[in-house]
């Protein structure tokens, strides 16, 4: 497999991970066990956004690109691939922090919904058990 192809695979994996961080909480509504994958991923995503650090997948992609004779890029994956599509030019640090807080709020809302469903299921099971006794 060529280094360019490996770089492209890393980009695809990275993009899938970003989507999972953003929307993986909704998968928890489908399968509760997904929370054990999503919570660490979401925490990692928030950490990257709040600290402004670069995900390790970015240097890996750049290394493959350079080994394949292509140019790497400066900055992180979000800045290189996602910002031009989703964010306005010149994304500022305060906006980046606001986006991280929005990610936290969105996922807190989803997990609150999941928690309420768990409580509702338990109370329904409990009331059915007591009525059958």
Summarize this structure briefly:
This protein is mainly α.
Estimate what percentage of residues fall within beta strands. Answer: under 5%
- Count of DSSP E strands? 0
By helix and strand content, what is the structural category? Answer: mainly alpha
Output the number of helix runs. 5
Poorly predicted residue ranges: none
Helical content class: over 70%
Largest sheet: none
Radius of gyration: 20 Å
What's the shape? Answer: elongated
The residue-averaged pLDDT reads: 79
Span between N and C termini?
64 Å
Order of helices and strands: HHHHH
Description:
The structure is a single chain. The chain has 133 residues and is mainly alpha-helical. It has helices at residues 3-30, 35-51, 57-67, 77-86, 93-132. The radius of gyration is 20 Å and the shape is elongated. 17% of the residues are buried. The model has no long low-confidence stretch (mean pLDDT 79).
State the main characteristics:
single chain, 133 residues, mainly alpha, 5 helices, 0% strand, elongated
What is the topology?
Blueprint: H1 3-30, H2 35-51, H3 57-67, H4 77-86, H5 93-132
Helix pairs in contact: 1-2, 1-3, 1-5, 2-5
């Amino acid at each position: 497999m060529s280094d360019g192809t490996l770089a492209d695979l890393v980009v695809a994996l990275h993009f899938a991970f970003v989507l999972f961080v953003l929307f993986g909480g909704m998968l928890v509504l489908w399968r509760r066990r997904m929370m054990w994958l999503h919570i660490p991923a979401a925490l990692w995503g928030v950490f990257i956004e709040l600290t402004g650090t670069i995900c390790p997948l970015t240097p890996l992609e750049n290394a493959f690109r350079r080994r394949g004779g292509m140019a790497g890029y400066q900055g992180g994956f979000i800045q290189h691939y996602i910002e031009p599509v989703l964010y306005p030019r010149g994304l500022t640090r305060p906006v980046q922090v606001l986006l991280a807080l929005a990610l936290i709020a969105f996922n807190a809302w989803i997990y609150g919904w999941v928690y309420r469903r768990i409580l509702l299921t338990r109370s329904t099971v409990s009331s059915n058990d007591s009525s059958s006794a």
